Structures are given as C-alpha cells and as structure tokens.
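ugh ok fine here u go
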Amino acid sequence: MDRAQDNGSNKLVLSPWLLAIRPKTLWAAVSPVVVASAMAYWQGDFRPLPAVACLSVALLLQIAVNLANDYFDYVKGIDTAERVGPTRVTQGGLISPETVRKAMIVALALALAPGIYLILRGGWSLALIAAASIIAALAYSGGPYPLASHGLGDLCVFVFFGPVAVCGTYYVQALRLTPVVLWISVAFGLLITAILVVNNLRDINTDKKSGKTTLAVILGVKGTLMEYTLLIMAAYAIVVALVLKGLIPVWCLFPLLSLPLAFKLCMALWRNPAGFGLNQALSHTARLSMIFSLLLSLGFLMPT
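structure:
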C-alpha cells in the first residue's frame, strides 16, 4: 500500500495524489481555455460543449505531464533529497514509481474521449495537434531525448500552453482563427512559460548536478532572470498594443491592474534569485497568470 501518513498521523489517502497532480499548476492549463472561450463569446461564437471538452483535455494532459515529470525525473535520478522544491511523490516514497506511471497512462487515456469529440467537430487536422500534444506530454521528461533536459522545455511550454491551447480552444468553437487570437495566444504562452522559468531557476543547481540541461542552466542565473522579466513584460505589452490598435475592447486593459504584482515579483527575484523563497515566487507567478487571465477574460465579456 502507498504510504499516506506523516509523523504518525493519518491523512486522507488522496493527499499524496494531490501532491502528484500539483493542483497549483493546473491553472496553467485552465487559463488559456478560459480566455479563448471569452474571446469566442466576444465574437458571438461561444459554444459550451467544445469549451468544456477543451477544458477536460487541457486538465488531463496537464495532470499527465505532472505525473510523467514526477516519474521520469525520479527514474533518471534528477529528483534527489537535495532539491528545494515541494516533495515529489516518487522520490519521497509516497507512491511507487510504477503506480505513478500507470496513473499517467490513465490520465492520457481519459483525455481520449473529449479529444475524439473535438477532432470530429474541428476536423482531422486537430488529430495531428492532439497527437503532438500527447507526444509532447511524454517527451517533455521522458523518452530518448527529454525536451526539458535539453533546453527545450521553455519552447515546449510556450507552444502548447500558448498557440496550441488558445487557438485550438477558439477554433473548435468558432471554426475559424483570427490574427487577434494568435497574438493573445502568444501573450499567454509567454506568461505561462514564466512559471516554468521560476521552477527551473529554483532547481538550477540540482539540475546541473544531475545533468539536466534546462534553459536556465544554459543561460545562468542572470540570464534566466532577464528571460523571466522579458516574458512577463512582453505579455502585458502585447495586450496593450492590441487595445491601442483598436483590435480588442478597451476593457481588455483590465490586466494592467495586476501590473504592480508583476513588478513586485520581478524585483523580488532579482533581489534574491535563490533558496526556498523561489517556491513562493513560483506560486505567485502562477497566481499572476490566473489574475491576468481572469481580468482579460472579463474585458472580453464586458458589453461594448
């Protein structure tokens, strides 16, 4: 039986699984779907069933990625007792590696039903996107050439949480794409990638020791801090530019209300780019993406 006890006190059996699926990261999967659906509503193209199907696929794939990362990083010896991040269930002995691997497969299998519906609605070109998404979920941490271990994790997150998630969600509702949708997808890809950047900055020393070459390892601490700052500022700049050009409603400036939090995060990281404080910075960056997406969605939902 998997261990689910801590300091002799009984805990819910689900508690290790909550650690495994990493609930705080799931908003990264939800926010592109929410914003794309708000844009579809703004254009009069919102369709609830495709939106819910996209949300289901996004969440299940994110859970599969988290489980795969937990499993493969343990198997490859990347996660050790030296890591400063939250407990990983395989490395911590909370759930056996084989059980985590099977759960990953189950998550991918559950994504098939809503995925097939989306393919039938949007056309067989979506089958290629679905296949690429599944391959990316597995290849991110596993396979003969793990993307995250060869400096390609940031690009992978940008592509699949930005253009693929936003454009895909919008397309299956409206059955068309516009340049505005693409630009918004780029903004979200940048913002979600910033979450990964903090994660990799936190793990930079342990990743070096294990031979995991993330982009943070390649760029170094200062380069990674610069990347983080540029990603966040560029996301805001894209939205402001679209408003100034009259391509989206002026209400879409609502995300500027979260700009003080963005500045605070950037300044805090530059002052102290190491240690356990990065766990908090990671959580706050995820929260920033949530606030940004909700405010932008509200802007699209406002009457014009």
